[in-house]
Write a structure and sequence with these properties.
The chain contains 12 helices and 7 strands. It has about 325 residues and is of the alpha/beta class. It has a single domain, classed as Thiamin diphosphate (ThDP)-binding fold, Pyr/PP domains (Rossmann fold). It has a 5-stranded parallel sheet, with helices on both faces. A two-stranded antiparallel sheet has the order 4-5. Helix 1 crosses helix 2, helix 1 packs across helix 12 and helix 4 packs across helix 12. The longest helix has 26 residues. The radius of gyration is 19 Å and the shape is globular. The chain binds thiamine diphosphate (TPP) and magnesium ion. The site of magnesium ion (MG) has 6 residues, from strand 4.
Length: about 325
């Protein structure tokens, strides 16, 4: 675990609060899905919160862009999209961040640097590389960060994009969220190498393993990588080891793994770990944490009320924003 010393109390409270908001939001999304308020696919992010929160804290807002896959609620919240606009999107309502036409896998907000969730495994990797190409040639001073799973690493698009990023020196940071499974298949059954950072080295791209349960480690590594991308047009690859607590999607009871395995990861819960370190440093009390949690549950509840009370997209809006 990286030391929290050196970061001020307010900043650490912000990080903890954001991760807890994501956790509570996902729990509520799961519950509302169960009540059939949300349709279509829905992939929850519980357990992986330190990855998107740490990464967002390492980005430069207003300059940098983020792309990810379909497990995108956490990234959107970390970039500051409101729980209301996300819940409404899940409900398919006109007030959603994608006007109710994207759904769970397509959270988008240009102004906040959220360049989208993507439903095609690995599809976001060449898109992000193209974004970084544009940023370099338009000299906008920013960089692009792209998230994908351990399952996406075997897609041809990943390898093509990594090679182009290296030879063209593009300001892009590739982040593999290795949560140990691609749907029901464990990484050691799907991959001949299980330390996936090696794939980056094959393209002569600086590559590292990062502890995805430690939000500080993620933040520091992403900040370094993004700074290097912006200043030197040097791409990087980070394999962030993490774990998803829930099934792949809402229809997956996750029977392919043992209770012991899940419990071992639960014992390193990223939220519990940060809270414990803050308590030890006397930066938060258990009462303050409980109060924070209570307020966040109310925030999430309000997002449900907002979604419930929002209108459906109008029929005449069917084709607007669909083609550029
Ligand atoms: C091109 C393509 N192939 C297959 C699928 C079906 N599919 C959806 S998610 C998934 C597993 C991906 O796992 P991983 O990349 O590890 O991401 P995680 O779900 O763990 O976040 C598959 C095979 C798809 N959406 N796109
Ligand atoms: Mg995975």
């Amino acid at each position: 675990m990286r030391p929290i010393k050196g970061y001020d109390k307010e900043f650490l409270h912000g990080l903890l609060k954001e991760m807890l908001l994501i956790r509570r939001f996902e729990e509520k999304a799961g519950q509302m899905y169960g009540l059939k308020k949300i349709g279509g696919f829905c992939h929850l992010y519980n357990g992986q919160e330190a990855v998107c929160s740490g990464a967002a804290a390492g980005m430069k807002r207003g300059l940098d862009r983020l792309l990810t896959g379909y497990r995108d609620h956490g990234h959107a919240l970390a970039l500051g999209l409101s729980p209301e606009s996300l819940m409404a999107e899940l409900y398919g309502k006109a007030t959603g961040c994608s006007k109710g036409k994207g759904g769970s896998m397509h959270m988008f907000d240009y102004d906040k640097g959220m360049w989208g969730g993507n439903g095609i495994v690995g599809g976001q990797i060449p898109l992000a590389t193209g974004s970084a190409f544009a940023q370099k040639h338009q000299k906008d001073g920013g960089a692009t960060i792209v998230f994908f799973g351990d399952g996406a690493i075997h897609q041809g698009a990943f390898h093509e994009a990594m090679n182009l990023a290296a030879i063209w020196k593009l300001p892009v940071v590739f982040v593999c969220e290795n949560n140990q499974y691609g749907m029901g298949t464990s990484v050691d059954r799907a991959s001949s190498v299980t330390d996936l950072y090696i794939k980056g080295q094959a393209y002569d791209i600086p590559s590292k393993i990062v502890d995805g349960m430690d939000v500080i480690a993620v933040m520091e590594e992403v900040k370094d990588a993004m700074d290097t991308a912006r200043k030197e047009f040097q791409p990087s690859f980070l394999e962030i080891k993490t774990y998803r607590y829930k099934g792949h999607s809402m229809s997956d009871p996750a029977k392919y793994r043992t209770k012991e395995e899940t419990e071992a990861f639960l014992a390193q819960d990223p939220i519990v770990l940060l809270k414990a370190r803050m308590e030890e440093a006397k930066l938060i009390t258990d009462e303050q944490y409980k109060e924070m949690d209570k307020q966040l549950k109310e925030v999430v509840m309000r997002s449900v009320e907002f979604a419930e009370n929002s209108p459906e997209p109008a029929l005449e809006e069917m084709y607007t924003d669909i083609y550029a």
